[in-house]
Design brief:
- The structure is a single chain.
- The protein is of the alpha+beta class.
- The chain has three domains: 259 residues, BirA Bifunctional Protein, domain 2 (2-Layer Sandwich); 110 residues, Herpes Virus-1 (2-Layer Sandwich); 109 residues, 3-Layer(aba) Sandwich (Rossmann fold).
- Helices cover 40% and strands 24% of the residues.
- The protein contains 18 helices and 23 strands.
- The strands form seven sheets. Strands 3-9-10-16-13-12-11 form a seven-stranded mixed beta sheet.
- Strand 4 and strand 5 form a beta hairpin.
- Helix 2 crosses helix 13 and helix 5 packs across helix 8.
- The chain is globular.
- The protein starts with a helix and ends with a helix.
- The chain binds glycyl-adenosine-5'-phosphate.
- Glycyl-adenosine-5'-phosphate (GAP) binds next to strand 10, strand 13, strand 16 and helix 13.
Length: 511
């Protein structure tokens, strides 16, 4: 299945089963805005709960907050977003389509990288077990020529961006003869910087004095509350503040479903540390976050780190955790060593001291910060696309199953009376009441049992609990497991503990 087909299938499955709908669809939708449906919002809540438990509840020195989306406009001057949160954009004069200049160049480079990978694959095929990839990459003339070209392009692009030389960016696009994917033409406008923040006006005030922004990251709500939390919570370094909330960016090209949206949700944690210890904490959080992802059991081979070469204005080290989405490896989470940039800058702009008094050394200083920042919607897409499986079963039947990690599945168990009479529905509803206190469970009595299993498979329900005539005498039920389709007879008195052991949040932490 091609990457495009893979993503299309996930999108249509997500809509059909109530996970994600296009926003305001009755008016033909709004570009890059999506609504989470009845199952999507359950899955999203479970992901938030897993993150919050791991970050806030399991760490004595991390607390959570919920800051306002609107913030004093000077916040964004201090953070650098007013001056530097820009994307370079370029229009094709013939198709009138707008592109990010950096993305056009990156895609050009990716094509050359694709050719190198093909060269390597050919080498592997030719030399078999004797093939030494490292040696091949450092000696093969084709690979060396292509790599030289990539280095030249990256070098020219980096120097143009570092010096804010937008004419040089345009020249690079022209020299590389990059054509518009729609019109095929190479006639481009000049490159312009485009600020990604959404602006609006506060109350009845219009004009510059009333301008406020929709926050482009949740992190600043944490920085401006650093001292409030530190003092009211009597926190000592190192400590962290976590937050989950909406962020907004006027992305020039928002695409690939919920991967890049204009309104999205972030789960961020700023970890305040003593200056000089930031490298140690940066490495700590890299490995802690990798372990958190690994516990979801979506395959270690589907994650990789990507170190940033061009660092953001606030960072002294940064990397992404990339995930193997249907469109290839892409950023899922960022881990940034943000130095003391934000707190210092807020000190300067507000005139308020944002320091930590170290009772041991009697020193007062601005803490350094290590940040972990994950997009909730991207995590949702990672889970959904990784879970989506079409299977051929014995006897030629087929099923579509969402192999969602059980602890975060929207519905944990379905309770199914074998037939709609003889007291089975009543017994099933008793079991439903027993389980629903701790888990989101569903009752379903429509259609034959096989069809009900398929429906639950398609929405990723890990357990199906069938109440049959024997249940009325032996007080036991048959529990069918989603992935292996194995069945087990469980006494009703043991059922709550059994379900918990299979789908409880603790199963993620036991790993
Ligand atoms: N506070 C740091 C920060 O915002 P970022 O790398 O710009 O860093 C962090 O964003 C995460 O937010 C990304 O790794 C990604 O998961 C998510 N994200 C960023 N832009 C997004 C968008 N337009 N749509 C969906 N998720 C996005």
């Amino acid at each position: 299945m091609s990457a495009e087909d893979g993503l299309k299938k996930v999108i249509s499955h997500a809509k059909e089963y109530g996970f994600v709908f296009p926003s305001s669809e009755i008016y033909d939708g709004l570009s890059a805005a999506y609504d989470y449906g009845q199952l999507g919002s359950e899955l999203k809540n479970n992901l938030k709960h897993y993150w919050w438990t791991a970050m806030v509840r399991m760490n004595d020195n991390i607390v959570g907050i919920d800051a306002a989306i609107f913030m004093h406009p000077t916040t964004w001057k201090a953070s650098g977003h007013v001056d530097a949160f820009n994307d370079p954009l370029i229009d094709n004069k013939d198709s009138k389509k707008r592109y990010r200049a950096d993305v056009l160049i990156e895609e050009f480079v990716a094509k050359i990288e694709g050719k190198i990978n093909k060269d390597v694959a050919k080498g592997k095929k030719r030399f078999g077990d004797d093939f030494n990839e490292e040696e091949f990459r450092s000696t093969n003339p084709n690979v060396l020529r292509r790599q030289k070209k990539i280095d030249e392009i990256n070098g020219r692009f980096k120097s143009a961006m570092d010096t804010d030389d937008l004419e040089a960016v345009k020249s690079l696009i022209e020299d590389l003869e990059i054509a518009c994917p729609v019109s095929g033409s190479k006639t481009w406008t000049d490159v312009r910087q485009f600020n990604l923040m959404f602006k609006t006006e506060l109350g009845a005030v219009s004009g510059d004095s009333g301008v406020v922004y929709l926050r482009p990251e949740t992190a600043q709500g944490i920085f401006v509350n650093y001292l409030n939390v530190q003092k009211s919570g009597r926190m000592k370094l190192p400590f962290g503040i976590a937050q989950i909330g909406k962020a907004f960016r006027n992305e020039i090209i928002a695409r690939q479903f919920i991967f890049r949206m204009r309104e999205f949700e972030q789960m961020e944690m700023q970890f305040f540390v003593k200056p000089g210890t930031q490298e140690e904490w940066y490495n700590h959080w890299k490995s802690a976050r990798k372990d958190w992802h690994a516990s979801l059991g979506m395959g270690d081979e589907n994650y990789r780190f990507h170190d940033h070469i061009k660092l953001a204005h606030y960072a002294d080290a940064a990397c992404d955790i990339e995930f193997n989405f249907p469109m290839g490896f892409k950023e899922l989470e960022g881990i940034h060593s943000r130095t003391d940039f934000d707190l210092k800058s807020h000190e300067e702009q507000s005139g308020k001291k944002l320091r930590f008094f170290d009772p041991e050394t009697k020193e007062s200083y601005v803490p350094y910060v290590v940040e972990t920042s994950i997009g909730l919607d991207r995590l949702f897409l990672a889970v959904l696309s990784n879970a989506y499986t079409e299977e051929k079963l014995e006897g030629g039947a087929e099923r579509t199953v969402l192999r969602i990690p059980p602890a975060i599945a929207p519905i944990k168990a379905a309770v199914l009376p074998l037939i709609k009479k003889d007291g089975l529905p009543e017994k099933a509803k008793e079991i439903l009441s027993l389980l629903r206190i701790n888990h989101n469970v569903q009752y379903d009595e429509k259609d034959a049992i096989g069809r009900r299993y398929r429906r639950q498979d398609a929405i990723g329900t890990p357990l199906c609990i069938t109440v049959d005539h024997d249940t009325l005498t032996d007080n036991a039920v048959t529990v069918r497991e989603r992935d292996g389709m194995t069945q087990e007879r469980i006494a009703i008195t043991d059922l709550a503990a059994y379900v918990d052991s299979k789908v409880g949040m603790q199963t993620l932490f036991n790993k």
